[in-house]
């Protein structure tokens, strides 16, 4: 079997973060090669290097494709060579038809005039290839995510693909759609198409991959081969996680008190589709000094639950009761939820958590401007003292609080968001994916801050898709699936397998 | 007003590197000075003659007043295209009230301001609570109120107005300090104007020093001291110079006082109040602002109400200046106002912009209009030059932003 792609000693640095540190990846022609690793391990960055999103010169190391060195200047360049990447966020134009999308930028035309009959004929061939039974004129808008994924693959096939890269292709798909997609991958393989599959779902990887490269903290850990029976979940997880669990999470003396925050019979309906229930009768509580986790797959409804609690920022027809210290509290608007003692750190800090073009100081004070003003007039000197205090306490690495947050690394940005919410003096903090997109060192610091919050007698509710993180940090874990809390585990009883079994069985 | 420009930098920065890193903040002010110097020379000193300075204020007052409101709207991430039509409509309404219905001036003015508020509310309601793009809503408003002023005036010009109403624009503050001129021994000199100019300059310097010492006490690094002195000498010198020039003509125009007070109020509102801070946060990232407990819809609604009120005030002043209401009054004012705000450094995407910048932007447009008219340049060339200046200002801004990023 010949080598199709060889990436050697790829190093890519961002300001303050080394995302990739001499990574090696070798893909043979005609195989399905899986790349696995934790969130933030560097998989997507590696693929961006490969596809030319980070052009030659912005990284170190070399890429050999079909035996000769490739120096891609952009996506168009790598596509011309037959390397096609399908991103997590689909790149289809919703209001154009399937046929128009398939040949976008690659139109079947002569002298600028599109040959529609030929376009439709080719579209039908391609759709048959990927097993999608839809008319070429159907608008992409009308298709479900699973079918859109197939359109993406058909689009790749339209471009004479040699190496197909799929970035978390099944993340948003239902079980049966995922199976169909994996079958299609095997089918394409039999037609000689090489693919790289990036996935979190180890059972899928196990099923289709010939070889697996594990990446951790920006370095290649191992390459496992199916042929040598090296591919099993335990081995992959061990390589993915690497370090000893004990050293990944700071020590903490648990001092857990009475029930602090309690939610009863919480029901939420979809904001656009009033008949669709998103949260079903959720009941849970957080004690003083306790860190409680919510585990679940993407789309389980965890963020929706948190946001609906926080000032009804999600959903409609919300019913149920939230209590603090046993007394019902008003969470109907964000400001009343804040006043009641809640804080919500969003999973998407850039889009929802920060005003990126503003300074650290102005971001920290944003949720509690009353705290730095009198009669509506700001005291900027006091504001600066407050921000400076948090900068030191949180160890936000920046020369001063007048820096714009857009220039900070993910970890420092997250500390700014945490500072903002601590300044509102919350009793309960809901942290939604608090370490997403943050490098390992900063993660450790964020965990330390969380422990400190619990030590101060606050309640912490942590939503995370990284199970090891939940297991390492939480005193108790709720498992959520399809809008309902389907299980509860004490820290000592919890394991990835038990969490998964709750999800699978519900 | 002087503190807005006092940005903070690390200690030890030299004047040169300080200016370089704050080119965005000072650039337009320097541009204004350069433009004024250019026209002063090319018009043989006509530009800065007392009568022309007075005219400059009278001609641009309504643009500046509207720019204050437009800045808030643009910072909040929206736009208001209807202000020109609202100027026309409110002027027409005031004319009908006073000339045809014989209302007193003192009933007409508040009534018209209330109508402005109602117009702002009517448009802001759709923008804020229904999320209809402000471009569309106010484009509709632009057509509706232009039509409404035509309808109100039945296509005719209505006027003239009572003297008290005209005073809104063309009146001057009487010289309350007649003894000053005897001190200086100048025959034609308005003592109040000179005194007011000196007092304001002194106040600005005092406020600037107070902020500076307070900042230092808190360990906030300000601009270099030499820079601080230079800026204060320049600004207070300019104020005293202008007030002296005004004093040798007819003194302080009423509208200058209105404009000055409003500018101070809005500068304070945007920079030092919770309300102002929230508007910037809203424009910077509406979703993040909302999740920080800021009632973003209500805030957008308020900025449009405010814009409506200021547009109505501008309409009254404009009508008073012409001493007649015409169906064409205020045509394309919205473009001058919006251009002023963007020349002043506001960002199309919201969250960025300063009141002082918008005022400077309006003066740049105003001085160019005035200077080119004195030179006898035709309206055709004037429009082209103004368009290019707007483009250049925004390119300069974007260039600076990219360089610093």
UniProtKB/TrEMBL annotation, chain A:
Q: Which Pfam families match?
A: ABC_tran
ABC transporter domain location is 5-242, 263-503
Q: Report keywords, A-Z.
A: ATP-binding, Cell membrane, Membrane, Nucleotide-binding, Repeat, Sugar transport, Translocase, Transport
Which GO cellular component terms, listed alphabetically, does the Swiss-Prot or TrEMBL entry include? plasma membrane
Q: From the Swiss-Prot or TrEMBL record, what is one GO molecular function term?
A: ATP hydrolysis activity
Give the InterPro entries listed for this entry. AAA+_ATPase (IPR003593), ABC_carbohydrate_import_ATPase (IPR050107), ABC_transporter-like_ATP-bd (IPR003439), ABC_transporter-like_CS (IPR017871), L-arabinose_ABC_transporter (IPR053466), P-loop_NTPase (IPR027417)
The organism's superkingdom is given as Bacteria
CDD domains according to UniProt? ABC_Carb_Monos_I (cd03216), ABC_Carb_Monos_II (cd03215)
Report the Gene3D superfamilies cross-referenced here.
Answer: P-loop containing nucleotide triphosphate hydrolases
Q: Which SUPFAM superfamilies match?
A: P-loop containing nucleoside triphosphate hydrolases
Location in the cell reads: Cell membrane
The way this protein sits in the membrane is described as: Peripheral membrane protein
Stated family: Belongs to the ABC transporter superfamily.
Protein name (record) = Multiple monosaccharide ABC transporter ATP-binding protein
Tell me which species this is from: Roseibium suaedae
TrEMBL record, chain B:
Nuclease among keywords = no
Entry's transmembrane regions: 26-43, 63-96, 103-126, 132-153, 190-207, 228-246, 252-269, 299-320, 340-365
Q: Name one Pfam family in it.
A: BPD_transp_2
Q: Alphabetically list the UniProt keywords.
A: Cell inner membrane, Cell membrane, Membrane, Sugar transport, Transmembrane, Transmembrane helix, Transport
- Keyword Transmembrane helix in annotation: yes
A cellular component annotation (GO) from this entry: plasma membrane
Q: Topology versus the membrane, per the UniProt entry?
A: Multi-pass membrane protein
What NCBIfam families does the database record attribute to this sequence?
A: GguB (NF040906)
- The protein's name is Xylose transport system permease protein XylH
Q: Tell me which species this is from.
A: Roseibium suaedae
């Amino acid at each position: 079997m010949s080598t199709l792609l060889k990436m050697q000693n790829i190093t890519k640095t961002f300001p303050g973060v080394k995302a990739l540190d001499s990574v090696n990846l070798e893909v043979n022609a005609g195989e399905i090669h899986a790349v696995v690793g934790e969130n933030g391990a560097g998989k997507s960055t590696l693929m961006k290097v490969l596809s030319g999103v980070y052009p030659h010169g912005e990284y170190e190391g070399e890429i050999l494709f079909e035996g000769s060195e490739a120096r891609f200047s952009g996506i168009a360049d790598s596509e011309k060579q037959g390397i096609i990447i399908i991103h997590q966020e689909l790149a289809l134009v919703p209001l154009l038809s399937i046929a128009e999308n398939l040949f976008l930028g690659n139109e079947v035309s002569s002298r600028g005039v599109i040959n529609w009959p030929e376009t439709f004929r080719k579209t039908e061939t391609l759709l048959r290839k990927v097993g999608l039974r839809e008319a070429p004129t159907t608008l992409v808008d009308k298709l479900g995510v699973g079918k859109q994924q197939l359109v993406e693959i058909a689009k790749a096939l339209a471009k004479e693909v040699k190496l197909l890269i799929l970035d978390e292709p099944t993340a948003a798909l239902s079980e049966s759609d995922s199976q169909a997609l994996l079958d299609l991958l095997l089918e394409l393989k039999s037609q000689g198409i090489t693919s790289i599959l990036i996935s979190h779902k180890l059972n899928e990887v196990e099923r289709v991959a010939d070889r697996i490269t594990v990446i951790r903290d920006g370095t290649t850990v191992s390459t496992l081969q199916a042929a040598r029976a090296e591919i099993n979940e335990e081995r992959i997880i061990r390589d993915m996680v690497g370090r000893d669990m004990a050293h990944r999470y700071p020590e903490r003396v648990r001092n857990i008190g009475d029930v602090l925050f309690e939610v009863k019979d919480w029901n939420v309906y979809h904001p656009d589709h009033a008949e669709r229930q998103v949260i079903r009768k959720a009941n849970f509580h957080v004690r003083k000094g306790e860190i409680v986790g919510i585990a679940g797959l993407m789309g389980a409804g965890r963020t929706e639950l948190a946001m609906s609690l926080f000032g009804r920022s999600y959903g409609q027809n919300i019913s149920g009761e939230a209590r603090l210290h046993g007394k019902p509290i008003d969470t109907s608007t964000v400001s009343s939820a804040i006043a009641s003692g809640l804080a919500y750190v969003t999973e998407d800090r850039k889009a929802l958590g920060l005003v990126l073009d503003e300074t650290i100081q102005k971001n920290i004070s944003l949720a509690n401007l009353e705290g730095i003003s009198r009669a509506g007039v700001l005291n900027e000197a006091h504001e600066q003292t407050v921000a400076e205090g948090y900068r030191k306490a949180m160890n936000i690495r920046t020369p001063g609080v007048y820096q714009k947050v857009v220039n900070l690394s993910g970890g420092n940005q997250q500390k700014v968001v945490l500072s903002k919410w601590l300044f509102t003096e919350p009793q309960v903090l809901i942290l939604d994916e608090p370490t997403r997109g943050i490098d390992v060192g900063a993660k450790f610091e964020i965990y330390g801050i969380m422990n400190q919050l619990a030590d101060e007698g606050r309640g912490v509710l942590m939503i995370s898709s990284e199970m090891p993180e939940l297991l390492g940090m939480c005193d108790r874990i709720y498992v959520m699936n399809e809008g309902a809390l389907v299980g509860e585990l004490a820290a000592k009883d919890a394991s990835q397998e038990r969490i998964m079994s709750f999800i699978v069985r519900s | 007003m002087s503190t807005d420009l006092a940005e903070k930098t690390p200690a030890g920065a030299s004047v040169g590197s300080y200016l370089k890193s704050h080119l965005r903040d000072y650039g337009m002010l320097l541009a204004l000075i350069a433009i004024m110097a250019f026209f002063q020379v090319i018009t043989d000193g006509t530009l800065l003659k007392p009568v022309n300075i007075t005219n400059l204020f009278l001609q641009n007052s309504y643009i500046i007043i509207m720019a204050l409101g437009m800045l808030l709207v643009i910072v909040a991430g929206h736009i208001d295209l209807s202000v020109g039509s609202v100027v026309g409509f409110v002027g027409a309404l005031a004319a009908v009230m006073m000339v045809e219905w014989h209302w007193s001036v003192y009933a007409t003015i508040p009534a018209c301001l209330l109508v402005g508020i109602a117009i702002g509310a009517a448009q802001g309601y759709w923008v804020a609570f229904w999320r209809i793009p402000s471009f569309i809503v106010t484009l509709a408003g632009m057509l509706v109120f232009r039509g409404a002023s035509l309808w109100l005036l039945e296509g005719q010009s209505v006027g003239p107005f009572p003297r008290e109403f005209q005073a809104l624009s063309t009146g001057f503050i009487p010289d309350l300090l007649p003894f000053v001129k005897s001190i200086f021994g100048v025959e034609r000199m308005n003592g109040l104007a000179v005194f007011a100019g000196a007092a304001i300059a002194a106040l600005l310097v005092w406020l600037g020093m107070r902020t500076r010492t307070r900042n230092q006490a808190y360990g906030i690094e300000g601009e270099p001291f030499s820079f601080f002195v230079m800026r204060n000498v320049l600004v207070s010198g300019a104020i005293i110079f202008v007030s002296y020039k005004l004093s040798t003509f007819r003194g302080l125009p009423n509208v200058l006082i209105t404009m000055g007070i409003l500018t101070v109020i809005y500068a304070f509102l945007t920079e030092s109040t919770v309300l102002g801070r929230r508007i910037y946060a809203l424009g910077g990232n509406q979703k993040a602002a909302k999740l920080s407990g800021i009632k973003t819809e209500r805030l957008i609604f308020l900025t449009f109400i405010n814009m409506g009120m200021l547009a109505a005030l501008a309409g009254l002043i404009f009508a008073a200046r012409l001493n007649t209401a015409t169906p064409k009054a205020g045509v394309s004012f919205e473009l001058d106002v919006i251009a002023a705000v963007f020349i002043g450094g506001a960002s199309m995407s919201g969250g960025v912009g300063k009141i002082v910048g918008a005022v400077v932007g309006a003066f740049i447009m105003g001085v160019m209009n005035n200077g080119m008219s004195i030179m006898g340049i035709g309206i055709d060339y004037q429009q082209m030059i103004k368009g290019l200046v707007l483009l250049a200002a925004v390119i300069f801004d974007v260039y600076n932003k990219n360089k610093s990023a």
